[in-house]
Amino acid sequence: MNQPLSVLIIEDSSFDAMVMVNVLEQGGYSVEHEQVETSKELTHALEHGSWDVILSDYNLPEFSAPEALEMIKQSGLDIPFIIISGGIGEDVAVAAMKSGAHDYLMKGQLARLVVAVERELGDADHRKARRKAETDLRENELRYRLLWEHSNDGVVLMDAAGWILFSNPAMVPMFGLSDTTLLGKHMGHLGGLGGKDSEQAPFVQELLQSNGQLMEFIGVREDGGRFPVEVSCSGLEMHGRKMYAAFLRDISERKQAQRAIQLHEERLEAVKEIQQWMFPKVPPSIEGYDIAGVSYPADAAGGDHYDYLTMEQGVHGFVVADVAGHGMGPALLMSEARAYLRMLSRQQRHTGEILTKANEVLGDDLSFERYITMIMVRLEAQERQFTYSNAGHPAGLLLSAQGEIKAQLKRQGVPLGIRQQSVYPSSEVMPLDQGDILFLYTDGFDEA
Asked: Which among 66, 82, 151, 429 is placed 20 to 30 Å from 97, CA to CA?
């Protein structure tokens, strides 16, 4: 019999919601679900339903995953929250995880969904069990030992001086103990101190006075291995004596994840510096023309780019391009493409020849997953005319002085890197009238 699962889906696409439900049902769940699209609908669902897991798109027309996360925090509910989206970068996903999301999956790549739900349901059960253990610890001392014995976290019961009266089985693997009990040893022993020194361990004194607040210290295993430990400590009365129960957790994996996030952020900053360095500092000065280029980067650094190219006398080149994806790879590919375009623009006369040659030389570094869309314009300033070539890029616009669309610079071929043998044509000569505007952009303009 399939395991029942109550799922709240924050999604504006009914099709995408049904895809998620089908994946879960194929994974062995009997799914009951509700789809919401706004904060009002989410509030109603949280007040009138009981949910095992929440699956949320990142951006909706009237709502977003960060807003939903904040609402759930304020409600006090502990429900696994998994973001399933197709349009955000790694750094946005990392920020969402920092804000409380439990996992992130890409739409169209839901192979991990069942595993992620199973893991988060298990983690939610553990959190629930820990909260219950801490509450029951103050309510019924007869239940303490059973709860502690089966806790996934390490549990130590101490007297008011820090001497250990009880330790649960989870402490054995955590500290690599050869003996199954720490009975009779001082709490300072867990920090690698022995004898009289253990009694003077500063972290033990701080722990006994922490009043339930989370602390960290460096634990030392029997083999000398050191690892970070998160611990909380609560006082209680047992048999008329003041005692302290400490709950310990090995947070090595969390620390590694934090270091990985920090490294990712440092790399992202380096990517952004590379990206900004590649943009031209000033536009060319051409009599009779106003020329400007600007980039408004999203949080995720990627391969969006524009450039001004030097061609033959009296002719100027303009390029807008976009490498698929975000991060260091696309930024470096765009840097390589920029160098080739600057070189080819001095050797070739026509835009189609330049894009064809660029596709040939860049082909080995590009693929179906990592390609470049590009539009290039060749402006003959004195003749007031231009030609262009478009390799899978959003169509540029030729606007009149009144803002009407006179022509679209449509796609003439696939993006660079899709087919290394592609030949890109140059358009017919297009005239420019007084006041005309030629507007080139990347797909981020449409998305915004």
From this structure: 151
